[in-house]
Amino acid sequence: MNDRMAPPALRPIRGAALCAVAALVLAGATWAARAVWQVQLAAAGQPPSGPPDQGGGRHRPLTALENAYHVVSAVGDAVTVLCALAFLAWLWRVRDNARTLSGQRPRYAWPWVYAGWIVPIANLWIPRGIVVDIHHASAPGERLPRAVNWWWGLWLVGFLGGAGLYAGTTDTVIARAYTNAALLLVVDAAVVGAAAAGVFVVRAVTAVQQDHMR
Fold first, then answer.
1. By CB distance 3.0 to 4.6 Å, which of 38, 161, 186, 200 could disulfide with 147?
2. Domain limits at 116?
3. Does 4 reside within a domain?
4. How many domains are there within the chain?
5. Are 90 and 20 in contact (CB under 8 A)?
6. Angle CA(21)–CA(26)–CA(29) in degrees, nearest 5?
7. For residues 95 and 163, what is the distance between their CA atoms, to the nearest angstrom?
8. How far, in Å, CA of 34 to CA of 185, rounded?
9. Residue 23: inside a domain, yes or no?
10. Does residue 104 belong to any structural domain of this protein?
11. 0.70 exceeded by pTM
12. Is the dihedral of CA 99, 105, 111, 115 positive or negative?
């Protein structure tokens, strides 16, 4: 992990890429399922008894549809975490290979591979910058795949929109689905789109490295 050490040997990336692609597809599917349930909640309408969270620490019994949404939401959260781990594992490998192929230190030090996603403000551009740096180091002079910009643009829409709309508990999100499902669906569509574009990013960067490794 120390960027001052000698460049590591080239590492196989096909397996990590397949895992990342599978995780992205699965994450996109679970977010699409979340959107389907939100549409069903909006169509069913809020029960006369009001939202699940009644305030003051009081909660009414959940309907069958609300219970199902809790399950879908929990599965989606778990899959999103697994997707993040698989993507980071792939990112580490292609970053190491890019350093070996170029013979130069990466533009961003290794802590940013993790911190770049969570440090406020910096997380608006550093993860994309890491991917761009990897591509340029692996294939100097080659054009950056368009999928990188689509992936990052859609991710930002989903991330910034979801920061507000998905804040709070699942019961809070259910209440929003009853009253403002359209905005939730915009966020869901952006996340699904980012996952789909992410598949093309992984495939493109992996293919470039494999070509130059050969």
1. 200
2. 14-213
3. no
4. 1
5. yes
6. 130
7. 28
8. 9
9. yes
10. yes
11. yes
12. negative
